[in-house]
Design a protein that fits this description.
Strand order of the largest sheet: 1-8-3-6
Largest sheet: 4 strands, antiparallel
Shape: globular
Number of helices: 25
Radius of gyration: 29 Å
Length: 633
Amino acid sequence: MLQEEIVNFLKGVPPFQFLDDAGLGSVAGSLSLEYYPKDRVILRQNGPASDALRIIRKGGVRISLESGSGEQVAIDYRGEGETFGLVSLMGRDKQKTTIVAVDDTICYLLDKEKVFELIDTNPAFTEYFLQSHFTKYMDKTCREMRNKSLFYGSSDHILFTAQIGEIATSKVITASDRATIQEAARIMSGQKISSLVIIDAQGLPAGIVTDRDLRDKVVSRGRDVQEPVRGIMSLPLIRVDARDYCFEAVLKMLKYNIHHVLVIKDGALRGVITNHDLMMLQGRSPLSFAKDIESQHSIEGLVPVSKKINNIIGFLLKEGARASNITKIITELNDRLVRKVLEIGEKKFGRAPVPYCWITFGSEGRKEQTFRTDQDNAIIYGNVESAAVENEVKRYFADFAAFARESLLQCGFPPCPADYMASNPRWRQSLEVWKKYFSGWISTPMPEAVLNSLIFFDFRPLYGDFSLAEELRDSLTSMLEGQKVFLGYLANMITKNTPPIGFLKSFVVEKSGEHKDELNLKIKGIAPLVDIVRLFALERGVKETATLERIGALKDKHTIVKEYADELEHAFEFVALLRIHHQFGQVETGREVDNFINPNKLSNLEKKTIKDAFHLISRIQDYIIERYKMLIW
C-alpha cells in the first residue's frame, strides 16, 4: 500500500510522471524518507554536496544565495511536488546554496546512483532537468544578483541595497572650532564643498557648517566674519553608520530637515553624505518631493505637489522596499505637507493666543500611512486662566481647524467619516480636558470609551508645542498602571475580530455583495496585529506608537512578544506589503482604492504566508482571552 501511494504521488511530479509503471515502481522502491522541522538547514552553502535528489512530499523550502556583502538573498521557494539538491549532486562539489525548511517538511530521497541511472536511460527525464530545472535556477540567480549589484548602470533597488559607505564622500574636510567664520568660508570655497565638519580640541566632530548656514546666519544678518565658526555651526550632529542602507540617510534628512549627514565607521568619522548625492543617485528621490513641499507658500501651490506623493509608492515598490520603509517615507512626506498647511494657517490667522500642539492618530499616528487616508487629528492647547481668553482661544482654533480641514481636503486628505478631527469642537481642548477624557475612558470603559481609546491612544505630536503631547502621554502611562479591568475590556473588544480562517484552514470570505469571495486585509489582517501590539504596549507603558517600534520596545518587557517578536514583525510586514501592492495595482488601473483581495488569486507561497499570519493572530488572541477571562468574560 505504501509503495502504491508513493507511485500515485510521483505520477503528478515532473519528470517522474514521464516514466512508465515499471520505472515508477523502481523509483518508489529506491526512496527513503526524511523529516525536517521548520527552520532546519537542510543544505548549507559551501558545505558538502547533496548526496540525493530530494522530492518534497509535504511542506516547503527556501533556497538562498549569499551575496558579496554576506547577506542571504532568497532566490527561490519550493513546495510539494518540487525537487531540490540536483545542482550540487551533479556537480559533486560544494553546495552552492543554502536550503532551509520554511515549515515542517517531509522529503523523499532518491540517492545519486539512481538519479544518474535515470539520466542515462530516460531522455525525457534528462531533458526536463536540463531545460527546466537548471534554466529556472540560473535565471533566478542571475536576475537576483544583477538587481543586488551597483555596477549594472541601473538605480533599481539601490536605495534599499546600497550601503551609505559606498556612496558617501570619503574625503572629509574639517576645521577647528577655534577657526573664524571667514577661515571656514575660505576652506569651503577653496575645496568647492557645501559643508565643513567642525572638530573640537580632541579631534572629535563638534558640529557642521553648511553653505545654508553661511547664507542664513552670516550674510543675511551682517554677522562679523571674524567671530568663531562654532557660533554658527549646526547641532546636534545627525549621523549614520557606513553599513546602513541609503534609505536610512534619506529618512533622517526628511525627519530633521537637513541636507548633510555624517558617516561613521567603527566609531570614527569616515565621510559625509548629502541630499545631492542621493538625488543624483536616485533621480526621483523622496528628497525632491520634500524640497517641492518646502518651496510652496500657499495651499494652491501645495495641491499639485501633494498629488505627486502617491507616485513615490510605485517608485519605492520598484526599489524593493519593505512595507515599513514605504510607510516611514510616506509618513515623513505627509507630515511635512501637513506642517506646511498649518504654517500657512498661522500666517493667515496670526499667532495662536496660547501654546498648542497639533496631534494625529490612527494610521497617521502610528506612522503607517500608505495611500492618502482620512484626516485623524486633534488640538491640545495650554490651560487658560480666564473666561475671556477662553472665548478668544475657542474662536481662534475654530477658524484655524476649519481652514486646516478644508486645506487638507484640497490636498487629497478626505475628512474622517466619524468626525475625529480638530474641526470638531470636542477634539480641540485644553490639556486638562484631554486628561479628563483619558481618565474617564479608563475608569468607565463603556463600548464608546473603549473605541475612543483604540483610536486616540495612538496619538503622536506633529506640530506646535510637543511638550503638551508629551505631558499627556506621561499622564496616560500613569493612568494605566494597574488598570487591569480597563485593559480587560480592551482585550475583549479586540479579540472579537477573529482572523478569516475556517476549521479546515480555508479562508473565510464575503459570501455575497460587491466583495463576494474576497476578504478585507485591513480589518482582518492589519487591524488585529495593530490591536494586539497596542494592548501589550499599554500593558507595559511603552510610549512608541508605530507597531514595529512597539514590538521592538516590548521584546525585553513582555513574555509573549519576546517569544513571537520575529513572527509578529514578519506577519505585519507581509500583510502590509500585500495591501500596498494590491492598492497600487488599483491606482495604476484607475480603480478606487480598497482593502479587499481574493485569496484564490494569490500564489501558493502567498497563501501559505498569509495563513501563517492569521494563525499567529489566532494563537495570540487565545493567549489574551486566557489571560483576561477572569476579569470580564
